[in-house]
Amino acid sequence: MSVSISARPFGLLTDLVDVIKDVAVEDKIAQNNFNSLNENMKNLINEDFQSEKVQKVVQNAVDIISKEYETVFADRELLIKTLEEHGVEGISINGDSLTGKMGGFRIDCYREKPTAFDFKEAIPFTMKITADCSEEEITELINEFNSEYALNTQEENYIKIKERLEEQGLKIEEEEVFEDDVIVLTVNI
Amino acid sequence: MKKQLKITLLPNGEIKMETKGVKGKKCLKYAELLEKLADAKIEKQEFTSEYYEQEVEEIQQQQNLYE
For chain B, which terminal residue's Cβ has fewer other Cβ atoms within 10 angstroms, N or C? Predict the structure, then answer.
């Protein structure tokens, strides 16, 4: 008796084991063909990996997620600074298109070219993060970028306002920095 | 009363400003100043009691003119 297992679409390895048992019980010759069957089993496993079910399991195990976020990051230089400070490496810049990597994360930022109607308003970037991780990890990363960009904005505003107050001949009487990172400038006018 | 600006820089990137001792519509020019200082755009504006104090004084002055 010869056993051909390639004709039957086995879904799982357990199915195959059941078949071996059945055949072994029905026909003693089958036991002699066990080695041949074993070889076929290996082929079957390889074949099984092509099946949709197994492919899905494998895909889930090494799933690569790609998420896009509409950010409020409208200042390109500030965005680059934020990415660098966070540890994004090898940032390549091509106009309003930025790409960099950080660990297993690939970060792409891009924005539309401004039209004649929004030449005064800076258009915010869209951030695309691609990684082999969970969605929560990507959301966490984008939240970190958000708070760091905001802190950089605060720092830039602080420097800019102080410089321009001086230019205007206005004196800062008091400067307070609170525990929650709030800065208060009291200016005499 | 001493005239002052209180400029508050928040960690979320927002800027708030309050005028002290500036009565009436004069305070509005400082809102314009803040826009120039920070290259920013005003999103929200609220008037304090000082804004209306000057209005009352101006109305009184106008009434005096007619009397």
Answer: C
